[in-house]
Amino acid sequence: MKRPRLGSILVQSGVIDELQLKSAMAYQRQWGMPLARALVEKHLCTLEQVMEALAKQTGHPVIDLDKEALGPRQAHLLTLKVAEQYRVVPLRMEGSRDEVLVVAMAAPAPLASIDAVQSVSGKKRVEVFLAADEAIRRAIGRIYRGWTHPPASAPAEAVAKGSNEPARAASGSSPVLLYGWTQQAQSTLSALLLSQGILAESVSANAAICCRSSDVLIAPFSALEALLAEGKTIPGRVLAVSKTPSSDIPKAQKAGAWGLLTPPFDSHRLVSAVQRCRSAKTLIWAT
Predict the structure, then answer these.
(1) What dotted CATH number matches 164-279?
(2) pLDDT in tens, 142-177
(3) What Rg value do the Cα atoms of the chain yield, rounded?
(4) Does residue 136 contact residue 128 with C-beta atoms inside 8 Å?
(5) Centroid of chain to Cα 158
(6) Most buried by CB count within 10 Å: which residue of 15, 22, 107, 209?
(7) Distance, CA of 22 to CA of 45 (rounded, Å)
(8) How far apart are CA 157 and CA 165, in angstroms?
(9) d(CA 90, CA 110)
(10) DSSP H/E element including 160
(11) Homologous superfamily of 65-144 in CATH?
């Protein structure tokens, strides 16, 4: 049975109207982000309203991970690499023989991700709850990185207010920021970086223009160009990605990017570019 569309659910429930939905979809296409995130960023819906609609769409209930007792005892259920790659938080085992793995996944919990988690866990079934991406990030930190609650890497005030400043890793190193990517591309980039021990975090447009000058941010050149067209700038060390480098390199240099990369990526080339950006004192040109 085909899932109902998220936008249709929100319109039918009276949360938004058709014009607001079209506006959110245009924003979604412009920045290459999920519709749920576009709706929240444009302040057309609250996060709670979007999560409720996603629960209706997927059939998975919503869970508040910040109220769950999470810590290192869950770490043996899934590896950190799997948790980061599929944005999944292991919660507990259930069943008479512990054959069911209960997890929380970043909405909308794609079926392919659920199947992958079941495969690597070796369990008969995976029971899924939905959670917001930021809640997933905090939960992963509490389980695998020893974060407190709220995480020690971000001030409590920032967590409470939903600050645009990306959280820092408990080790003190900043994650690489990913902006303007589809969920699939984001997962691929995160996995490539994580394979070399580098954390990555997807950020919104507001977070991108508020990042620190020392942050490394990877973005499709089209997303970077659209942001600059609005008169906004990214203070961090930007690595732009383009499939047409011959035409985009001069424009990327003019935009102040530190480098331009061409897909497909391998982990060593990607990490090498990131490390060069992190260690440089002044502008470099990584390709």
Answers:
(1) 3.40.50.2300
(2) 999 888 755 443 433 333 334 344 444 333 457 899
(3) 19
(4) no
(5) 18
(6) 107
(7) 14
(8) 12
(9) 16
(10) helix 156-161
(11) Type II secretion system, protein E, N-terminal domain (3.30.300.160)
User: Which residue is it, tokens 């645009």?
Assistant: 164
Instruction: Please name which of 106, 108, 78 lies closest in space to residue 91, comparing C-alpha atoms.
Output: 78
Question: Per residue in 87-128, pLDDT tens?
Answer: 899 999 999 999 999 999 988 888 889 999 999 999 999 999
- Sheet with 216-220, strands from edge to edge, namely 200-203, 176-179, 216-220, 237-241, 259-261
Residue type, 160: A
Distance of CA 137 to the CA centre of its chain: 9
Q: At 94, which amino acid appears? A: E
CA angle 161, 194, 110 (to 5 degrees): 70
- Using CA atoms, how far apart are residues 237 and 217, in angstroms rounded to an integer? 6
- Count of beta carbons in the 10 Å neighbourhood of residue 124: 12
The pLDDT of residue 124: 93
Residue 173 structure tokens: 């190193």
Nearest 5°: the CA angle 232, 168, 226 is: 20
3-state secondary structure of 103: strand
- What are the tokens at 176? 């690489």
Structure tokens that stand for 224 in this block: 């970077």
* Residue 287 and residue 226 in contact, taking contact as beta carbons nearer than 8 Å: no
Compute φ and ψ for 96, nearest 5 degrees: -65, -25
Q: Return the structure tokens found at 206.
A: 């507001």
pLDDT tens digits along 37-86:
889 888 899 989 999 999 999 999 999 999 999 999 999 999 998 998 88
CB count, 10 Å around CB of 210? 17
